Amino acid sequence: MAPPRPLTSTLALSLSAFLLLLLSSTSQAHNITRILAKHPELSTFNHYLTVTHLAAEINRRQTITVLAIDNAAMSAILAKHLSIPTLKNVLSLHVLVDYFGAKKLHQLTGGSTLTASMFQSTGTADGTTGYVNITNLKGGKVGFGTEDNNGKLNSFYQKSVQEIPYNISVLQISQVLTSAEAEAPTAGPSDVNLTSILAKQGCKAFSDMLIATGAAATFQTNVDGGLTVFCPTDAVISAFAPKYKNLTTPQKLALVLYHGIPVYQSLQMLKSNNGIINTLATDKANKYDFTVQNDGEEVSLETKVVTAKITGTVLDQDPLVIYKVNKVLQPKELFKVVKTKAAPAPKEADAPSDDNADAPSEDDADAPSEDDSADAKADDNGVSGLMKGGRLVVAGLSLCIGVLLM
C-alpha cells in the first residue's frame, strides 16, 4: 500500500490547479465572427453583423442566443434595399438576450415563451415589438415569430451551430424574422446634424467651437464609421474660456478634436475596456490619447492633466454616441502635466518662504506645456496596469507553491 501523500504536496497540487484555472479564465470570451466564419453558408449574415456593429455588441454580452440565417434567406431581406441602420434593427431581432440551447428550445415550459431581443433591450423598439415568440410545435418543430407579426410564426429551427453553455448559443433558423417596426425607415447616421444636437442638449458652446475651428467637418465625416463624442457642458466651457483664448488656432483645433474618438463606444464598452484610447487629434508622433478608467458605474477619462467624468448620455444611436463630461479634456501635448505630489521634505533655513512654490497650481495645469517627459510613463495606466496585476497574482501563487514543496 502506497504511503499517504504529504499534506504540503496535496496543497501544492491544489494551488497549481487553481493557478491553471486562473490563467485560462480569460480565454472563455466568445467571438461571433469567428464562430460563423466556420460556416460558409452563413457568411452573408456574418458580414452584416460586422457592418451594422452588432458583432461587437454580441461579443461583449453574456447569456445570449444568436438566430443565424443562411445566405439564401438573407437575400430576401437584402432585396428590400434597407438602410444600414434599418438593417441593424432587423438583425438585432435575431439576437436574444437569454440563452437557448437546442435542449432548452425543445423543452419550453408551457410549450411557448416570449423573450426579449437586442432590438427590445436597447430601447430601440416601440413598446413590446422587440419581443420574439418561441413555440414548440408538432413533430419536434420549433417556431419563431416577432410580437408585432400578429402571432404568426414565420421561421423555424433548423440546427444548432455552436453552443457554449451558458454563455452563447448560435442556432440556425429558416427565415428572417419579419417586423414592420424593425423595417420602418431609420435615418442614417450621416443625416444627423451633430452640431445641432449638441446645441440643443446643453453643449452649444462646444458646438460653436466645433464650427469655429473647422472640426465639425471631421466629426461629421467619422459618423458613418463610428464616432464617440465627449461634450463639456456650457458651464464647463465658460469656466475654461480664458485658457482657451491663449491657445493658437492649430492648438484650438487639436483640443476640440481631442474630444472625439473614431469608433463607437457604448457606456458598457467604456466600462469594460479600461485603457489608453486614441482620439481624432492623434497624428503619428502626436499621441493625443487619454486613459479610460471606471469605478463601478462611474467612468473617468484621465489625460494626465485633468480627470473628467462622464455625467450623462446625450445620444446613443450606434454608430454615434455623445456623452456629457464635467471638465474640458486637456491633452498633455498642450498643457502641463499634473505630477503626483511627493512627501514634503523638511524645510531648510534658506528655503523660499512660499510653501506652495513647488506645488502645481490650477493655472500651471492649464498652461501650454513645454515638457512631455511624462510620455515615458504613458503605459503605466489601463491595460498594462491590469496585465501587471495579473502577473503579480501569478507570481504570488507560484511562490506559495514553491514554499509548500520545500
Structure commentary:
The protein is an alpha+beta fold and 406 residues long. It has helices at residues 7-24, 32-37, 43-51, 54-60, 71-78, 84-92, 102-105, 118-121, 194-200, 204-213, 215-222, 234-245, 249-257, 267-272, 362-366, 382-405; strands at 64-68, 95-96, 112-116, 131-136, 142-146, 155-164, 168-173, 227-232, 260-261, 275-278, 289-295, 298-302, 307-317, 320-325. The strands form two sheets. Strands 2-1-7-6-5-4-3 form a seven-stranded mixed beta sheet. Strand 12 and strand 13 form a beta hairpin.
Provide a short characterization of the protein structure:
The chain is α+β, with helices and mostly antiparallel strands. It has helices at 7-24, 32-37, 43-51, 54-60, 71-78, 84-92, 102-105, 118-121, 194-200, 204-213, 215-222, 234-245, 249-257, 267-272, 362-366, 382-405, and strands at residues 64-68, 95-96, 112-116, 131-136, 142-146, 155-164, 168-173, 227-232, 260-261, 275-278, 289-295, 298-302, 307-317, 320-325.
Secondary-structure map:
Blueprint: H1 7-24, H2 32-37, H3 43-51, H4 54-60, E1 64-68, H5 71-78, H6 84-92, E2 95-96, H7 102-105, E3 112-116, H8 118-121, E4 131-136, E5 142-146, E6 155-164, E7 168-173, H9 194-200, H10 204-213, H11 215-222, E8 227-232, H12 234-245, H13 249-257, E9 260-261, H14 267-272, E10 275-278, E11 289-295, E12 298-302, E13 307-317, E14 320-325, H15 362-366, H16 382-405
Parallel strand pairs: 1-7, 8-14
Antiparallel strand pairs: 1-2, 3-4, 4-5, 5-6, 6-7, 8-9, 10-11, 11-12, 12-13, 13-14
Helix pairs in contact: 1-16, 9-10, 10-13
